[in-house]
What does this fold into?
Amino acid sequence: FGGRAAAATADSARRQPWICQLSGMRIEPGSHEEYAAEISLLQSGWDFVPVHELPAEQKHWFTLAVLLKKSQVFFTDNREKPYVIFTLSDLKPGGAATTVSVFLFGTAFHRAFKTQPGDVLALINAKRVPPRAAAEGACALSVDNAKQRQLVRVGRAADFGVCKGTHARGGVCTAGINSAECAHCERCAPCAAAGD
It folds into this structure.
């Protein structure tokens, strides 16, 4: 019986999310050893900065965030360069979550199609977007991966979910949420509460 209990305990441990000590994020089990190694590698050359403390100007930094949504494809003013915008979040609970917009150009743009909402990404040495390109008060960054890896997938967020709300016109809401905390995004929560 002892062998079976030990095996069951080991199996249960393998199914538990891995908690990243840097960000507090829970990453889905499966190959978390690989993700942990990737994060350790990043730590050896860069300083970790939480999403809510992203630097205006600093070299050798990285952060970890969850992809909430991807935009449609846009083009620069001269229509020469395509790009997409990722909305990333640290998924902090209690209304403390911070989001950031990341503009992906060049190699990063072409790799973006493999990335899905819910993926945990390491954002490395991204550049600030000029204020006119970002909404006032919002943090916006850009990456192109031309000289170095600036956006690296390191896992899948165990707490990522999609809002279960509907819009006034009947459309389904697709906003990313922290599913461990709620079933609806901030926009849909009041309507959901009113309907209870």
About this structure: The first helix runs from residue 2 to 15. The chain has four helices and 13 strands. The helical segments are 2-15, 32-43, 106-111, 189-195.
